[in-house]
Amino acid sequence: MLAPTLKRLRAASRLTLQQLSERSGVSVSTLSKIENGQLSPTYEKIAALASGLGVEVGELFGQVPKPTPLGRRSVTRAGGGAVHETDQYRYEAVNADLPGKRFVPLVTTIKARSIQQFGELSRHDGEEFIYVLDGEVTVHSDYYTPLTLSKGDSCYFDSAMGHACISGGEEDARVLWVCSHSSLA
Amino acid sequence: MLAPTLKRLRAASRLTLQQLSERSGVSVSTLSKIENGQLSPTYEKIAALASGLGVEVGELFGQVPKPTPLGRRSVTRAGGGAVHETDQYRYEAVNADLPGKRFVPLVTTIKARSIQQFGELSRHDGEEFIYVLDGEVTVHSDYYTPLTLSKGDSCYFDSAMGHACISGGEEDARVLWVCSHSSLA
DNA sequence: TACAAAATTTTCGTATAAGAAAAATTTTCG
DNA sequence: CGAAAATTTTTCTTATACGAAAATTTTGTA
């Protein structure tokens, strides 16, 4: 359904057919016909239209651009997050009441004491960041030798690379863990 | 340049023209002509092609799908980040050596002591997360009354909403600040 | 090499996209 | 309201997209 999409986008930009014609290089008559569903534009015209409208071509094919909700905010007090526990980690998902975030912050306690506790290293889409709040953390990952991080140290890495964290010191380490969402919508 | 793009995508899927024709509903002869640049397909054919190939239409228009670099990692020791300072904040960009991250972590010292120090509130695309490391922070923003956060508290919000942080207690507060990138590439 | 099968390109008739200009419609403003 | 201007739609001609089938090229196998 290109016709209504184009109508909507042109209206949103407050352009006349004449103006859009100038910006895109597509003739006024052709634009009119497209908007009335009387004509199916070719590749060049579609590319020109997207360019003239300043949108991604995907938008003309009904793909939503970015579902950015506006003005959301969420507060979590210390220790007030939703706890989720595995053998290796104790996650406290802060600001969990906000769905669809672009990245996910987790206050995490690292229970694991040895790499043996991990079967296979974790691997998934996205990127991660770790900031050490307390204690000592050793990061094991593909391609790198184990890395020890102390309070205030941080590490950013690609999640597709196998990874695992273990506590190094006397007591369980605590880190602020941030994960990006997977790439595809 | 649709022709080489289509050739590449079809080769990647190991499909013959016949097979792609069956999957997409576009005739073999038309496919051949498109791949040889002898013909500019219409809207319907383009949509059908993307569907048959299992790719986003944007790919047919030369947009890269997802440039996910694999296996990157960066380490920053406490206090070892790149410092950037404004009147209100002192940013320490950790893991700054890694370009193109999906979100940006900043260890930030909040120097501002009053909302008057901010002219206009900050407003930009994206989302942000603040985790208080030390001290007390008051978050001012559109739509909400000022919010005071103590050590261990966190807040996640939409960056398009005007926002500003000031230190509340005796000494400058320190927070771990995470910003998502702007939506469009 | 020969030969058949598969894959691709070309041919050709029909349908339709493209744009210029005319016609119709809507908007603006006295 | 009514005329002029702006905007959109229609008309008409040319160029080109589309698919079926034929022609050609490539691939696989003996």
TrEMBL record, chains A, B:
It comes from Azospirillum palustre. Keywords: DNA-binding. GO terms for cellular component: cytosol. The keyword Transmembrane does not apply. GO terms for molecular function: DNA binding; DNA-binding transcription factor activity. Residues 6-60 form the HTH cro/C1-type domain. This is XRE family transcriptional regulator. PANTHER family: BLR4304 PROTEIN, HTH-TYPE TRANSCRIPTIONAL REGULATOR.
